[in-house]
Amino acid sequence: MSHPSRRSFVCTAAGALAAGIVAPALAQGTGRMDGGAKPAAAPGAGRIELPMREFGRTGMKVRVLGLGTLQIGIEHADQDTATKVLNTALDEGCNVIDTAECYMKAETLIGNAVAHRRKDYFLFTKVGHVLNDDETTQWAPEWDEPGILKSVDRSLRRLKTDHLDLVHLHSCGPRILERGEAIGALEKAKQAGKVRFLGYSGDHRPALWALDSGKFDSLMTSLSVADQESIDMLLPVAREKKIGVIIKRPIANAAWRHESADPSEYHYEYWRRLRELKYDFLQGETRDKPGPEGGAGVAMRFTLAHPIDLMIVGSSNPARFRQNAEIVAAGPLPAAQVNEIRARWKQVAQPNWFGQI
Questions:
Q1: Residue 144's closest CA among 100, 101, 188, 107?
Q2: Maximum distance among all alpha carbons in the chain?
Q3: In Å, how far from its chain's centre is CA 111?
Q4: What does the pLDDT look like over 6-60, one tens digit per residue?
């Protein structure tokens, strides 16, 4: 069994932090014309109504804030904790759950917790990095057709569902994309009714290739105060081609909260960049202040200010989704603040400061 390097995949970094208009189509396997997941009910007492956006050309209508499940996997959350995290997010209006086979036991935790609520959410996962049978150790990447098709089947079984709304190729390089076998495998899964839409998760030139290929319905990519290449390179192309845009790590893993970092740690690269960028809002009392005006709030609202459909933020804390929803409710960061952050980035950022896997 080979062991992936730090760059090869996020799931091995057990210290990663929580930390992103077409007509509705007939939803495959649902018989409804609402895109597959029913809109959340009218807000109840105190619930925040999250903005809804059309997801590219898919017909899916997604809330702008989705739930990531990396944390409940790599932090080895127990079933009770995961059940609270997932159901609380759905109760708060979330209608997208994002996961991956390699997020340790995350898929199994999701299936056990919310399979009975399957019509309440869109289910997104990723393929290309596999686990052993006990879901505790990552194997080497598998990008061949048999490996990907088996991965899809394993995800269906663990998630206790008969279809996946969206499956992303998980940050494979340009050679894998150009060879076409991995894409062809997902297309076969789609033809079999197991997958509704295809996506690519990644950054930089491979992501641009994926957008230009015409093969994908979705791009999952990085955008944050510490990772801004996608704003000019990828987002305009995605908008032109009506490809749904999902942002991963919209608050740069909150890397500023660490006083120090080791190069082997997953958040190190963003931590290092932020040390050089020296944003005013990440200094002093503002840095750790909760809410829309604090460090995390400004960072998230910066990401929200760009033409995206969905941000994915994860946590093993059941209260976190609502806290993030309160930040989203404050609206995108004002243009003047966005421009200040962009200007500082252009002044300091190096050519190799693109997305991290």
A1: 188
A2: 55
A3: 18
A4: 334 444 443 333 333 222 232 333 333 244 454 444 444 478 999 999 999 999 9
CA neighbor of 244 nearest in space, from 205, 203, 201: 201
Q: Considering only CA atoms, which of 179, 105, 185 is closest in space to residue 145?
A: 185
Picking from 53, 28, 31, the residue whose alpha carbon sits closest to that of residue 166 is: 28
CA distances from 167 to 99, 291, 316, 346 (A): 10, 33, 23, 33
Q: What pLDDT digit, counting tens, does each position of 102-153 carry?
A: 899 999 999 999 999 999 999 999 999 877 666 666 666 889 999 999 999 9
Determine how β-strand 122-127 pairs with β-strand 96-98: parallel
What is the model's pLDDT at position 135? Answer: 64
* Residue 46 burial by Cβ neighbours in a 10 Å radius (0-12, 13-18, 19+): exposed
Handedness of CA 237, 17, 130, 81 (dihedral sign): negative
User: Which residues, listed in sequence order, are joined to residue 312 by a DSSP beta bridge?
Assistant: 66, 248
For residue 77, give both structure tokens. 């959350």
Three-point CA angle 243, 269, 8, nearest 5°: 65
Q: Which domains are present in the chain?
A: 10-40+48-348 (3.20.20.100)
Mean of the pLDDT values across residues 249-267?
A: 92
- pLDDT at residue 137 in the model: 66
Taking the C-alpha atoms of residue 160 and residue 155, their distance in angstroms, rounded to an integer, is 8
Which stretch of 42-56, 222-236, 318-332 has the lowest confidence by average pLDDT?
A: 42-56
pLDDT at 66 over 70: yes
Angle at 280 between CA 277 and CA 282, to 5 degrees: 80
User: Which residues 6+ apart lie within 8 Å of 244 measured at CB?
Assistant: 55, 56, 57, 58, 60, 62, 199, 217, 218, 219, 238, 309, 310
Rounded Cα distance, 206 and 296, in Å:
29
Phi and psi at residue 318, to the nearest 5°: -60, -25
What integer pLDDT is reported at residue 141 of this predicted model? 82
Q: Report the pLDDT value the prediction gives residue 290, as an integer from 0 to 100.
A: 93
Give the type of residue at 186.
Answer: L
